[in-house]
Design brief:
With 579 residues, the protein is of the alpha/beta class. The protein has helices at residues 2-11, 15-47, 55-101, 104-110, 112-154, 156-162, 166-203, 205-210, 214-266, 272-314, 375-380, 405-410, 426-430, 439-448, 452-456, 475-488, 505-516, 554-560, 563-578, and strands at residues 337-346, 349-359, 364-369, 390-395, 398-399, 412-415, 424-425, 465-466, 493-497, 523-527, 539-544, 547-552. The chain contains 19 helices and twelve strands. The termini are far apart. Bound molecules: adenosine-5'-triphosphate. The site of adenosine-5'-triphosphate has 14 residues, from helix 4 and helix 11.
Length: 579
């Protein structure tokens, strides 16, 4: 019932249409009973007395009833189809919105293939329940009740004899539900595994080829494919085991009707018309019972799929906008940045520990540290991709959690370590966060990121489609487009997370000079591997295992002879070696 309540809640404005469609289902099911009733009259009042007075009126009524029923049935199907599609459109949009606003950590945990299955196949099965299972349940119930009520008036003894099979059916159904429900959950899980294998195989195609693991991947896919197929067969077999018993119980109704009804007729306790009414309505009692297996199966599948959707709907947001958060107009962020006692723990591991530093607007801070020291997580707190467990990340003296997410993120340009480009033109990738910029502007930004030359060398220049479905770019080229995208926003705070790891020293030096000469004031937070990229920063911090171990300027850090000096000396000797 909780799943039905959940569905009802999320149907919103579409509820009246569903109610109207199900009402039509009741009416059309009830109309099915009318013709057998008229047939009884035809036998008892026309055929047996051989009096044709009522023949035409009765036949006419039968035709009208059938015509009205078909018309109403068409209306019902149209209502259910449009209603269920619109309902799913709303639910899909809501789910997309939830996924969009969920934290990166949540999305990493869920796996893309899993989320895709929930958004497509699971939602479609819920739609099937709204458009098909719902009216079939109502049909079955109303046909059964209408037929039962009518037959009780014709001959209550025979009717009660017929329903003696009901307890067996209910016992069987409850066993079926217990058996089939966990099986449906496993089917959805196997489908998720299959989708994940396919998705990872496409995304990691280069790795697969480079390591010649095609056969291994084929085996992995075939195994997942087989497990999915086997589980579906198991579900079908389980249903098939119950169905013949349900069918047999349905057939029992015919036997009871003929045996008991025949005896009643011989004893003169029942008319031929009444017997005709019973034989033409046995299906109305037996079909709902026989269809029970299919409907239970469908309903259990609906329960499993809605559980999976509810899990996404109800997942708590790790990063949420505070009530009363302030919106700062675009460009009003000055750029004072400070981290005060920032700590973070993930999966019971301390990732950042009491990180404290400040930098004034327009200044540059360089962050250096070993792999996994926590640099990326630290800078991503400024745009609230993750929040600290304790401490404060402040911009212009206000905690970042006190800004609305959109106004906070509008003021910050972030070039990430893992570059992601959209399947779109170079221009639209660069303008992604800054609206439409004229060609000249885009070109000058690309120049600052040292991207103009290689973009101009492409066949369609700035109109070239790049990204997942577009032209391949080298790692360094992607980094420069990503830098241009961050610069195009003319942000008050610019975060550059290891954006020169894939470019040569000459390009790095060019980008360094460009950043020095930006024509607007902006605080720069630069995570870098190479000391040369951050040596002129106003403040350099060195992170190790989530703690600041050294802090100062280039000269002061060299003077103290710690990790920074060691790295700088190592890089210098490598550079001399290369020359
Ligand atoms: N989503 C996550 N869940 C759990 N742990 C995470 C998650 N993301 C990162 N970590 C862990 O947090 C630590 C810091 O990660 P982070 O990416 O900030 O390191 P980094 O200093 O940027 O490393 P690198 O220089 O290699 O990019 C790492 O040990 C990493 O394993």
């Amino acid at each position: 019932m909780t799943h039905l309540k959940w569905l009802w809640k999320h149907m919103g404005k579409k509820r009246p249409y569903l109610v109207a469609a199900l009402f039509l289902s009741v009416v059309t099911s009830a109309l099915l009973i009318v013709n057998p009733m008229l047939a009884q009259q035809l036998i008892d009042r026309v055929v047996i007395p051989q009096d044709t007075t009522l023949l035409l009126p009765l036949l006419g009524m039968m035709l009208v009833v059938q015509g009205v029923r078909l018309g109403l049935r068409y209306l019902m199907v149209m209502l259910l189809e449009t209603n269920s599609q619109e309902c799913m459109e709303g639910m899909r949009a809501r789910m997309y919105d939830i996924i969009q606003n969920q934290s990166h950590r949540f999305l990493m945990k869920m796996r893309t293939g899993d989320l895709m299955t929930r958004m497509t196949s699971d939602l479609d099965l819920i739609r099937h329940s709204v458009a098909w299972t719902s009216y079939n349940v109502v049909d079955a119930l109303s046909t059964f009740i209408a037929a039962f009520s009518f037959l009780m008036t014709v001959n209550w003894r025979l009717t009660l004899c017929m329903v003696t099979v009901a307890p067996f059916i209910f016992f069987l159904s409850s066993r079926f539900i217990r058996r089939i429900r966990p099986m449906h959950a496993i089917v959805r899980q196997k489908l998720t595994e299959l989708s994940t294998v396919v998705q990872e195989n496409i995304e990691g195609n280069r790795v697969v080829k480079a390591f010649a693991r095609e056969n291994f991947e084929n085996d992995k896919f075939n195994a997942a494919n087989r497990r999915f197929q086997k589980m579906n067969v198991d579900v079908a077999f389980t249903g098939a085991k119950f169905q013949p018993i349900l069918d047999a119980l349905g057939q029992m109704l015919w036997i009871i009707t003929i045996l008991v009804g025949g005896t009643f007729m011989i004893q003169g306790r029942m008319t031929s018309g009444a017997m005709i009414a019973f034989t033409s309505l046995v299906w109305a009692i037996s079909n709902p019972l026989r269809n029970l297996g299919v409907l239970i199966n469908d309903f259990q599948r609906f329960v499993t799929c809605s559980d999976r959707i509810i899990e996404v709907y109800d997942a708590p947001f790790e990063v949420e906008e505070r009530i009363g958060a302030v919106t700062v107009p675009c460009g009003d962020i000055r750029g004072d940045v400070s981290f005060r006692g920032v700590s973070l723990e993930l999966d019971d591991r301390i990732i950042l520990d009491d990180v404290t530093f400040s930098i004034g607007a327009g200044k540059t801070v360089g962050i250096l540290g070993s792999t996994g020291a926590g640099k990326t997580l630290l800078v991503s707190m400024l745009v609230r991709l993750i929040d600290p467990a304790s401490g404060n990340v402040m911009i212009d003296g206000r905690d970042v959690r006190d800004y609305t997410l959109s106004s906070l993120r509008r003021g910050i340009g972030y070039a990430m370590q893992d570059v992601f480009l959209f399947s779109d033109t170079v221009t639209r990738n660069i303008c992604y966060g800054s609206g439409n910029l004229d060609n000249e502007k885009v070109r000058s930004i690309a120049q600052a990121a040292d991207a103009n030359d290689f973009v101009c060398a492409m066949a369609d220049g700035y109109g070239t489609i790049i990204g997942e479905r577009g032209m391949g770019l080298s790692g360094g080229q992607k980094q420069r487009i990503s830098l241009a995208r961050a610069l195009a926003k003319k942000p008050s705070i610019l975060i550059l997370d290891d954006i020169t790891s894939a470019v040569d020293l000459e390009t790095e030096s060019y980008i360094h000079r460009s950043l020095e000469g930006l024509d607007w004031t902006c605080t720069k937070i630069i995570v870098a591997q190479r000391v040369s990229f951050i040596e002129e920063a106003d403040l350099i911090i060195v992170l190790d295992h989530g703690r600041i171990v050294e802090t100062g300027t280039h000269d002061s850090l060299l003077a103290c002879g710690g990790y920074y000096k060691k790295i700088r000396d190592l890089q210098l000797s490598q550079a001399v070696g290369e020359i």
